[in-house]
User: Fold these one by one.
Assistant:
Number 1:
Amino acid sequence: DTGVSQDPRHKITKRGQNVTFRCDPISEHNRLYWYRQTLGQGPEFLTYFQNEAQLEKSRLLSDRFSAERPKGSFSTLEIQRTEQGDSAMYLCASSSPGSGLAGSYEQYFGPGTRLTVT
Amino acid sequence: AQKVTQAQTEISVVEKEDVTLDCVYETRDTTYYLFWYKQPPSGELVFLIRRNSFDEQNEISGRYSWNFQKSTSSFNFTITASQVVDSAVYFCALSEPFNSGYALNFGKGTSLLVTP
């Protein structure tokens, strides 16, 4: 069983450019989460999907951020008109539906995409 | 509002010492879930343990043990006989409610350095 994968691992972009990151969750995991982690901080929740439905997106940092999961498998996170403050690690996680209480399922994280905006 | 506090920013110990990482949380939910994750220098978060709010049994896994005390809203993590490979940043996390898909609310982490 392969883990969560993210692509690219590193992205350097100039301010004002758009960037898109991809996340492939563990197969059959129906929940997918995006987090942002800045230096010296814990990950910060951005949005999540259950299958293809984006059920929480109010925590996306601004309207420049958007995410999709078109077929309920992989997901993309796009940042438009990047700013230097967007420089961070962007983490994707997935969790299994399981058969117990939904909140108890651990989330498995990918290696992250490190974004540097110059 | 939910909050996770890890008051220890950095801890340095010598190999074979025991070390405890503190975690204090705040929540209004009656049912919630607590987690510990390890982030080694490679960067990938590794799941260590999950604890349900209605189960206050402490847990031991090898050199790792966890002490959950609802009365003090604490979920502390102890590493016995620490090893150099334990050097990492450790995060405590609290699950958010259902309407956030049980997303994780992380503390700021404790950086543990184990020296030979």
Number 2:
Amino acid sequence: NAGVTQTPKFQVLKTGQSMTLQCAQDMNHEYMSWYRQDPGMGLRLIHYSVGAGITDQGEVPNGYNVSRSTTEDFPLRLLSAAPSQTSVYFCASSLGRGFYGYTFGSGTRLTVV
Amino acid sequence: KQEVTQIPAALSVPEGENLVLNCSFTDSAIYNLQWFRQDPGKGLTSLLLIQSSQREQTSGRLNASLDKSSGRSTLYIAASQPGDSATYLCAVMNAGNNRKLIWGLGTSLAVNP
């Protein structure tokens, strides 16, 4: 099925561990982004990419890295997990930033203990 | 600074009612406004996208309006059904190079049979 695929769906990490959240889309969308969703704070943009090889920071980028080597994939790396990174993470893609709507993945629920 | 507010935070209605969800924003310089639906534990589904030059968009039983001058959008749901129960999120995209999405906290809707 066409769409945005995120893996894993659930993850528990210990403080200081690193991991990569995977995001893949098969719609040939240029724009991809990562959000975190926390109770009472809404969705906040972590990083985004307007095309392969181009990434930029959102409003809460600290502690996260991204790369975009292909149009399809946009992984999010947690360098050294902290309890403050406990959240639900969503990947989203769009044909272009602005005129088109967004397609979201089903999310990754991350707990850092 | 753009701020997006959704009122009410929660709404419970009997099946069959027509209802209105509200979204207000503080800066009228927007590129577009989008309404999303989020089911518990799931990702976000795009419902309607209204460009800044448009007044409304319709999809099935849903109708979204946009009044930039007053900084308001409404999502009208006709003949509500239990399957409409979800959280509805409003997101505004700022105009200009930033094109940042600013999110409301959502309205949690329960439609009772």
